[in-house]
Specification:
Oligomer: single chain
Order of helices and strands: HEEHEHEHHEHEHEHEHEHEHEHEHHHHH
Radius of gyration: 23 Å
Number of domains: 2
Number of helices: 17
Helix content: 40-55%
Length: 392
Amino acid sequence: MVGLLELFCAQGWALTYACTASMSEHSYPLESLSIERQHVKVNDSAFDTFITQVSPDIVLYDRFMVEEQFSWRVDIHCPQALTLLETSDLHCLRQARQEALKNNREFETVELMNEVAYREIASIQRTDLTLMISSYEMELLKTVFNIDEQLIHYFPFIVDAEEQSKNTKAWPSFNERKGFMCIGNFKHPPNWDSVQYLKQQIWPLIRQKLPKAELSIYGAYPPQKAMQLNKPSEGFYIKGRANDAKEVMQQARICLAPLRFGAGLKGKLLEAIECGTPSITTTIGAEAMHDALPWNGEIVNEPEAFANAAVALHEDEKAWQGKQQNGINILKTCYSPVEFEQPLIEKIMEIKGTLINHRQKNFQGQLLKHHSMRSTKFMSLWIEAKNKGVET
C-alpha cells in the first residue's frame, strides 16, 4: 500500500487516505507524503458527505472487505470515479490451503470454491481494475475463475535495485551475524502456525546439530500462548514486536519461514533479500517470488530437510554468500520499478479515458453490482438505523 501511495504521489495526484482504524504510535506518517488523513466509520452515512465533498477521480479499496462496505456508497455519490481494488493476496486461496492443512490433505484448486471466494471474486468483478501481487494468483483468476484479463493487473512489491545495490556494502558480514530469526504478525494465521511448527518439529532438529544455536522470533501482537513458548534454555526466544524489522533481520545469519499455508508475496522474505539474509522457506513461502531464478536460500517442505538446509547454510560461509548474490539477482529481475510502475499508471489512465466502454464490456460485474450491492446497501442502512436506536 505504501508503494502505491508513493507511486500515486509521484504522479502529482492529490491523495486522501480514508481509514476505519484508529491512529496509533505505529501508524505510517502519511503527512510525509502530503497525504490527507480522514477517519471514517462503517455503516455510517457520514461517509456519503465525505466522499461527495472529496469527489475523487479514482477510488482505491484496500482488500475486498472494504469494497463490500463502501463501494455502493461510492457508486451512488461518485459514479464517475474509477475504482481499483488492492488484494494483498487471494484470501480464498489462503483459506483453502488452511483448510487442507487442518484436514491433513493435499490442497486442490477445486477447494478454492469456498465462501470467501464467492465474496472476493464478486468484489473483483464489480471493480474496474484489481491489482494482483502474485503472478501465480493472476493465473488462478484467469484459469479457475475465468476473470477477464482486462479486469486484473499484475503489480508486485517494488524495490529499487540500483539503490539497494548501494546498501550491500553496509550489510553485516557472515561472521558479524549469528543465529536464526523468524518474523511475522502473530494475528496472521500462517505466521502463528509457522511459529508452532518451528517449535514442535523443526527447531529440536536444528538444536540436535547446533546445540548452542539461538532462534529469535519477532512479531506484533504475540498472544499469551505464544509468549509461553519462550524457552531460553532451548535457544527459542519470543521477542514480540521489532522496532526496526530490517535491523533485526540483518543481525541474523538465516531467516526461517516454514509457511505451510498462505497466499500472495511474503514481505518478510523480500525484506530478507533486501537485508542480505538468506532464507529457508517452503514452496508456498517462495511462491511467485523469484520467477525461475535460484532462491536466496533453500526451498524445502519436510521438517528434517528444512532443518538440515538451515544448519548447512548457517555453517557454510561460501554457500551463504552465493545465496546473497541470488537475492540481488531476484531484486533486479522481479521487483524493478521500471518494469512495473509506468505500465500500471498507463493502465489506469487508459481505463479512466474509456471508463463507460470498459464497464459495458464487464456486464457480469454490472450485474453483480446491481444485485449484491443492493443487499449490502440495505443491510448497512439497517445496521446504521439499529445503532442509532441503541445510542438513543
